[in-house]
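## retry 2 of 3
previous attempt timed out at serialization; input unchanged, resubmitting
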Amino acid sequence: MSEPDDARPGLSPETDHLDRQVLADYLARTRWYAGKGRPSSVTGVRRLGEVPGTQTRAATGGPAEPRVALHLVEVTYTDVEPGAPDAVEHYQVPLALYTDAEARLEHAFVGWWEEPGVGWVHAYDALHDREAMAAWQHAFAAAAEQPGGNLHDPASSLAFHRLPGHDLDLSAHSTLFSGEQSNSSVAFGEDALLKVFRKVTPGINPDIQVHEVLSRADSPDVAHLYGWVDWVEPGSVDAADPDSGEVVQLAMLQQFLRTASDGWDLALASVRTLFSEPDVHASASGGDFAGEATRLGLTLRAVHDLLVEHFGAGRVPAGEVAARMRERLPAAVAAAPALAEHGERLEALFDRVGALGDVTVHRVHGDLHLGQTLRTSLGWKIVDFEGEPAKPLAERLLPDCPWRDVAGMLRSFDYAPRVVERTWAEDDPDGGEVRGARAQEWANRAKNHFLVAYAGGEVTPEQRTLVEAFVADKAVYETVYETRNRPTWVDIPLRAVAEIGAA
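## retry succeeded, writing output
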């Protein structure tokens, strides 16, 4: 998707009339732009197309404006060599275009310019605009009425897709969620949630792919997918194969679990309850989390079983798994020198993995932790199957060892009490030793119940080796992250690394 200016397809005069610096300034103001602090410039802007339906809404008494145009903004970084994997990124920017200024959207103003054949327009971030988001809703509703649930605009190569089984509430107003770091989510009343992918890469997005499979299988353990939006590179489609072409997946519409509670928040509340009950063991605490950990382990097991059923499973040499862990270690030690003293023991643990023979791999979540779970009145839901954002898309689509997901959740169980412990220390610095012991008790109890539930009973020696190694690998990653971003927190993963290496 990145070519020299004179060879980049699709950057027609219709798109090149946009001032790239205006879009660069806009990106710098957003929460989801990952290039903050890196020297860069906007090197291309492509208008992918317009959300269909504005004319239809006008004919039925709705507003004739705005036009909702989806753009792909190319950012090139100069702090790496040209051609490096992270030298170019692409960001999706949907804009609401109005003839006159809209005072209600002043906070979302991007710029104003002359549109060829239209005249001067005022452009706003479309996700802040209820009228613009209503156009998305109507497009999804129109897709449901088309054969196969597919509304395709050949002029723009945009396609809206709908799964059967849910009628959208077109009267629901949109609300943009705040606080997200990598994507943008908009709720439509209490009916549906639209996740707009901001940093995009050509290819199938695992979040859409996995949710489609699990939704069609009627899994009770995920928020069901209602639809999604694709764009196909013009000219890349083989006339003999309409489904060919380089696809970019732009957004997904899914069930909105409005009354659900965030798993991370529930865990923190459980630890706070324990700390507020003097001389009470975790098992007797009013906020005991063991039962929830058990149910969460069973939920993950059910999701993994469905992924195997629909995507299949295979076996790979354990040596390959161990080699990848080993390969990451030197760079981690260089970034976080405190890891150096644990290097030999970590390598010995990875060697034990390499001696296991073959291990099972299949599609997994890829970035599982308590923040990727929701507790509803009917049970736990696992969300966000996009995988680890830092990994290339092609790698996130590959089968992986299911114990990686298990390890991610175990590390999350370890983090929760340590985070609460740190906040309590500010008010009661003298009770640190007792709180530390109680935090460890809470973590051990949650981890044990989760692990036994997931494994369906006693964990075998081979499984325990894999768990230890993936937990160590994750804790090493966390140590690097904390060293770079929150140095005062680095003792949380370092403690885990020391315990694993000494086991």
